[in-house]
Specification:
This protein is α/β, with parallel strands linked by helices. The protein has 3 domains: 96 residues, Phosphohistidine domain (Glucose Oxidase, domain 1, 3-Layer(bba) Sandwich), CATH 3.50.30; 115 residues, Enzyme I, Chain A, domain 2 (Orthogonal Bundle); 320 residues, Phosphoenolpyruvate-binding domains (TIM Barrel). The protein has 25 helices and 16 strands. The strands form 2 sheets. The chain has an 8-stranded mixed beta sheet with strand order 1-8-7-3-4-5-6-2. Strands 15-14-13-12-11-10-9-16 form an 8-stranded parallel beta sheet. Helix 1 packs across helix 6 and helix 14 packs across helix 15. The protein is globular. It starts with a helix and ends with a helix. It binds phosphoenolpyruvate and magnesium ion. The site of phosphoenolpyruvate has 11 residues, from strand 10 and helix 19.
Length: 613
């Protein structure tokens, strides 16, 4: 058995090296997710102390409690291992600083005094695992701090490390992300390992200067939410949480995907200049609000907004959107324990439809599942067992067809709001025509029931459209077009399912490529199926809000784009500089290519066209 001395030595020695150095600037690259510059102090949510309530257990629970602790240790080891595996992408000085720290953490998750002591406390004092861990960590920290040593900073650091690992264990034991987003001070840059879409929905863009996380991909729902809120953000920034220190200054460039911790004078100056340039650009784009989205040869393009939460409504008005092309209704189901009933839904839709004052609102029925599974369990929507592959499991329309009462309540609320303004209904994650048919039967049944009850339902029911966001739906688009009234191409999921790359997973984000020829060919097939029947078709995935992709999308025949409101001015600017026959020619050239890299080059070379003015 190792002696206590041998065990604690590396903890004491290694980080000393780091502490002896002056804190210095570290630049960390991540995925650019929401443009804008943020300058402010770091607020690291993973640093919030994990204070699980003290809990005792019965004598019969000791073994189970020790098992829980063992599982939390395994998970914590995995997390530390993952952090270590990412070290190589960091700048050398950051690696030097972090490696010993991670080694120290890994050591404490081995046969350490902390774990032995915690296990003993579970047995002897009948404490719950998290209480035992906290008590043991405090006892060790007290002993360390009582030592006589001139290196006070070193002792504090060692005690801090023990507490930190106890916090990680407690967090894993209680499966609680110990963060209170309400506490984020005004003007701070929020730093976290991961942010769920539901967390992001709670952020106040007026208070938070920027967001940076370790995990996450460019087109995950968290990214979409952050863009919607207009918060400059960088996700997938490896090594961030281990280098960031709460309260220390940082700058974040959401367009470049860069976070600079402890910026020096030059970096700070540069950030200030970029901030001013960004504000100037915004003011310039705002002037486009009243101008039509028409190509130079007179082809009108409809520009609509995607809406994640009602707080975005003022932004939509400012952006000059011609209606809402995708209302993601998931916000109604997030951050709550119960399900919103028909009345609650009606109230929410009424607010939105009335705010749009006669412009059309496309309401997508609940698209639950995938990334949102954790929260789904909390609100009792999904079965508790999410399955081995949640993205391929019971989600989107297939979940609603298994739980028709959810769909009925939503259809009823939408039909009732149809009196207040033009609405359309969109079905998520369609894979075959029968699903649309089944949904329509339920829809018509709900309409008949409402009419019987004397509720004013429009004679011609609002249109029922299908999202084209799976390869299956794209390739069966001709059959689905016979069942649906319109198509909305969801390029985020379409790219994910076509390429088998999770859109929210930072580890594979380099493979997530909506411009991959496979994705483009599916889009083309679905678009042509719709156009043949003169059926409306839009693009409402993140591709629709990228000004560089406008020539290609127009060239493919798309005339309606729905995007996060803040993207509308730039996309409009691009449209106003384009000629439709040039776009058609360009799209033909792109579609002849089979090499993804060549397509990237071609599209990027169009940048000068869409970025002039
Ligand atoms: C999509 O998948 O492209 C889409 C628009 O839907 P969501 O991003 O909400 O999954
Ligand atoms: Mg989708």
């Amino acid at each position: 058995m190792k002696s206590e001395k041998a065990e604690t030595k590396p903890i004491a020695e290694a980080p000393k090296k780091a502490a002896a150095r002056k804190p210095r600037e570290i630049a960390i690259r991540g995925i650019p997710v929401s443009s804008g510059i943020a300058i402010g102090p770091v607020f690291d949510t993973t640093e919030v102390p994990a204070e699980a309530p003290r809990r005792s257990i019965g004598a019969g629970e000791v073994e189970a409690e020790k098992q829980r602790l063992a599982e939390a240790v395994t998970l914590s080891r995995k997390q530390i291992g993952k952090l270590k595996s990412r070290l190589s992408v960091l700048p050398e000085e950051a690696q030097e600083e972090l490696e010993p720290l991670l080694d120290a953490y890994a050591m404490m998750l081995g046969n350490s005094r902390l774990l032995r002591g915690a296990r003993k406390r579970i047995e002897a004092e009948l404490l719950a695992a998290e209480t035992a861990v906290q008590d043991e960590a405090e006892a060790i920290a007290t002993i360390i701090l009582a030592q006589k040593d001139d290196d006070r900073a070193g002792l504090n650091r060692r005690a801090g490390e023990v507490r930190e690992i106890a916090r990680r264990l407690t967090r894993n034991l209680t499966a609680t992300p110990f963060r209170s987003l309400k506490e984020v001070p005004e003007g701070a840059i929020l730093v976290a390992e991961e942010l769920t879409p539901a967390d992001a929905a709670l952020l106040d863009p007026a208070r938070i200067a920027g967001v940076a996380t370790e995990e996450g991909g460019a087109d995950g729902h968290t990214a979409i939410m952050l863009r919607a809120l207009g918060i400059p953000s960088v996700l997938g920034a490896s090594g961030l949480t281990e280098s960031a220190v709460r309260g220390e200054p940082a700058v974040l460039d959401g367009s470049a995907g860069l976070v600079v911790l402890r910026p020096g004078e030059r970096a700070l100056e540069k950030a200030k200049e970029s901030l001013a340039a960004f504000a100037r650009e915004r003011a310039k784009l705002a002037k486009l609000r009243r101008l039509p989205a028409v190509t130079t040869d007179g082809e009108p393009v409809e520009l609509q907004a995607n809406l994640e939460i009602p707080a975005e409504l003022p932004l939509i008005a400012q952006a000059g959107a011609q209606g809402i092309g995708l209302l993601r209704t998931e916000f109604l189901f997030m951050n709550r324990e119960d399900l919103p009933d028909e009345e609650a839904q009606l109230a929410a839709y009424t607010q939105i439809v009335e705010a749009m004052a006669g412009d059309p609102v496309t309401i997508r029925v609940l698209d639950w599942g995938g990334e949102k599974d954790m929260e789904a369990q909390a609100s009792g929507i999904a079965p508790t067992h999410a399955g081995p592959n949640p993205a391929l499991g019971l989600r989107g329309l297939r979940l609603l067809l298994k739980r028709p009462e959810l769909l009925e309540a939503q259809f009823a609320a939408i039909l009732r709001v149809a009196e207040r303004g033009p609405v359309r209904i969109l079905l998520p994650l369609v894979t075959n025509p029968a699903e649309v048919r089944q949904a329509r039967e339920i829809y018509e049944r709900v309409a008949r029931r409402l009419r019987r009850k004397g509720v004013g339902v429009p004679e011609k029911l609002p249109e029922l459209g299908a999202m084209i966001e799976t390869p299956g739906a794209a390739l069966a688009a001709d059959a689905i077009a016979l069942e649906a009234d319109f198509f909305a191409i969801g390029t985020n999921d379409l790219a994910m399912y076509t390429l088998a790359v999770d859109r929210a997973e930072s580890e594979v984000s380099h493979l997530y490529d909506p411009l991959h020829p496979a994705v483009l060919r599916l889009m083309q097939f679905a678009t042509e199926a719709a156009l043949r029947l003169r059926m409306p078709v839009s693009v409402c995935g993140e591709m629709g809000g990228n000004p560089r992709l406008v020539p290609l999308l127009l060239g493919l025949g798309i005339r309606c784009l729905s995007m996060n409101a803040s993207a509308i001015p730039r996309v409009k600017q691009a449209i106003r500089a384009l000629d439709i026959s040039d776009c058609a020619r360009f799209a033909r050239r792109v579609m002849e290519q089979s090499d993804p890299e060549r397509i990237q080059e071609l599209v990027m070379s169009q940048g000068h066209v869409t970025e002039r003015n």
